[in-house]
Amino acid sequence: MYKRFATEVTIRPDDIDMNDHVHNSKYLDYVLFARYDQMGRCYGMPMDEFVKRGWGWVVKTCSIAFKRPLNLNDRPIVETWLKEFQGSDVTVGFRILRQNPQKVSAEGEFVYTMVELTTGRAIDVPDWIVKQYSSFVE
Fold first, then answer.
1. Is 87 within a domain?
2. What are 94-137's pLDDT values in tens digits?
3. I want to staple 91 with a disulfide (CB 3.0 to 4.6 A). Which of 8, 18, 74, 84 is the partner?
4. Can you tell me the distance from the alpha carbon of 92 to that of 136, in angstroms, rounded to the nearest whole number?
């Protein structure tokens, strides 16, 4: 199993919907922010490095199970971990936790596809990247 990394996110007033909790679309933003943060801070290869090489990542699929609402005063933690590499795809699991009390607010997974920025076409994740990212196991 791959190691889990955590990033704290800040809920902004404009994240709140008419039901007085975080709008479901914002959960996607929180996971994307956490992945961006963790790519550099935890894995040692920030998104800027991918862009310099002419590569990017796009979301292919996403699944979220909403468990508990987040509110304006919450300070959620987003945990993510690698699940699988397959060709041009990487599957990333995630949990969004409320801190007090520490309960799961949402969980799920994303499948990201590596693309060549000039063409927008999927390319296989290079073996050396799979090896570097796969070195983070528990």
1. yes
2. 999 998 888 999 999 999 999 999 999 999 999 999 998 888 88
3. 84
4. 13
**CATH of residue 29:** 3.10.129.10
Query: What pLDDT is recorded for position 101?
Result: 83
Angle at 133 between CA 132 and CA 137, to 5 degrees: 110
Domain residues for the domain of 38 are 5-11+21-134
Q: Is residue 16 part of a domain?
A: no
The SS3 call for residue 40 is helix
pLDDT on residue 132 = 87
Beta carbons of 25 and 84 less than 8 angstroms apart: no
For 70-93, the pLDDT digits (tens) are 999 999 999 999 999 999 999 999
Beta strands 103-116 and 5-8: pairing type? unpaired
Q: What six digits make up the tokens of 106? A: 């949402």
Q: Residue 98 has which token pair?
A: 């409320």
**Cα 74 to Cα 21, 89, 107, distances in angstroms:** 10, 33, 17
- Taking the C-alpha atoms of residue 24 and residue 43, their distance in angstroms, rounded to an integer, is 28
